[in-house]
Fold this protein.
Amino acid sequence: MKRGGFLAAAVVIAATAFSVWDAELNLSDISDIGNSFDFLERLWPLDFSMVTHSLKETLLTVEIAFLGTISALVLALPLAFLGARNTTTHRSVYTGVRTLLTFLRSVPELVLALIFVPTFGLEPLTVIVALFLHNTAVLGKLLAELVEAADPGPQEAVASTGARRLLVSLYGILPQIFPNLLSHYFYRFEVGVRSSLLFGAIGAGGIGDVLFLHFKTFEYSAMAVDILMIMVLIWVLDYAGAYFRAKVI
């Protein structure tokens, strides 16, 4: 191994040791792992008496994620063309759009949600707005990179007909990036569902809200059904996302 490799390994080991020490991790705490197994035993037998309500809240979680991400895609697409070097109308527009996207992307969804709690309260709309703003920035950046990487050939062919800039973008670039656009969207939708679950745990609605309520009221058997539904939901979304990505790419 070269000297640089030894140095890198030493830095990683030192950083790991410092992190363990500074976080005050105590490996002896693992001796209480039995408490976790006792908790898992309380989840059985499953209580399906509230399954209808849980299904309704699961659907709400999906709806929140969909509304937040699809609205983000609608805004992110024009911003992507304005924030791409090869399609922007002016250098200042490019800089302004990129700065806006970077700023919104740097603010976590949780922080965005907290900002809007005083306005909307702990309601689904708060989560939708947070997902909308954050995913607009993320999708805007990803799509802008796709626009910049688009093959100039089709663009030149459309431009040679005398088409304006908008038509060049619509017919020379959009068809090229559309498969990857869908791929990026499905991924952000999956992430949005996971984020909605976490927001639900703090009272913003959805299956995460129901899960945490059952936990607080010691209804562990009903909580087990919530966990099962979340697992099925994530599995279905992962499978559906992979299926659609395979179809469009």
Q: What stands out?
A: Residues 165-204 form the longest helix (40 residues). The radius of gyration is 23 Å. The chain has a mean pLDDT of 86.
